[in-house]
Amino acid sequence: MAFVVCEPCRDCKYTDCVVVCPCECFYQDERMLYIDPEHCIDCEACVPECPVDAIFRDTEVPAAWTQYVQLNAERSAELIKNGVGHVTQKQEPLIRGEQCQ
Ligand code: SF4
Ligand code: SF4
């Protein structure tokens, strides 16, 4: 079990979610953030912090976004392996606008 970042996070990356995570399991690439399922403890703290409702429990991901379960696992593992993309502090959103508010 783990939580998963889905489509609404793309091009936004507001990172409100990151600061409340007790396990520092968020990683990012140029597109969006991902949760490392190996270290997520299912505390759910990040869910209400996301202004665009991008985070879901892996068993409750909306049907249209189920591919994000695998994408979070693959991308976080790749970023960890490459030693890049670990994000533990809030940063400016990629895009300013309604999508991120
Ligand atoms: S708060 Fe939501 S939109 Fe922002 S980085 Fe986290 S998951 Fe993505
Ligand atoms: S559910 Fe908890 S441990 Fe998992 S990513 Fe969210 S804040 Fe971090």
List the helices and strands in order.
EHEEEH
How would you classify the helix and strand content by structural class?
alpha+beta
Bound molecule kinds, no repeats: iron/sulfur cluster
CATH class category name: Alpha Beta
Estimated share of beta-strand residues? 5-15%
Number of helices: 2
Radius of gyration: 12 Å
Q: Biggest β-sheet: count, sense, barrel?
A: 2 strands, antiparallel
CATH architecture: 2-Layer Sandwich
* CATH topology (level 3) name: Alpha-Beta Plaits
Arrangement of strands in the largest sheet: 1-4
**Helix share bin:** 10-25%
Measure the end-to-end span: 29 Å
Average residue pLDDT: 91
Tell me, briefly, the overall form: globular
Number of domains: 1
Uncertain runs are: none
Total DSSP E strands: 4
Please write out the topology:
Elements: E1 3-5, H1 16-20, E2 26-28, E3 33-35, E4 55-57, H2 67-82
Antiparallel strand pairs: 1-4, 2-3
Give an account of the 3D structure.
There is one protein chain. With 101 residues, the chain is α+β, with helices and mostly antiparallel strands. The chain has a single domain (3-89), classed as 2-Layer Sandwich (Alpha-Beta Plaits), CATH 3.30.70. It contains 2 helices and 4 strands, in the order βαβββα. The protein has helices at residues 16-20, 67-82; strands at 3-5, 26-28, 33-35, 55-57. The protein has a two-stranded antiparallel sheet with strand order 1-4. It has a two-stranded antiparallel sheet with strand order 2-3. It is globular and about 30 Å long. The termini are far apart. The protein binds iron/sulfur cluster (2 copies).
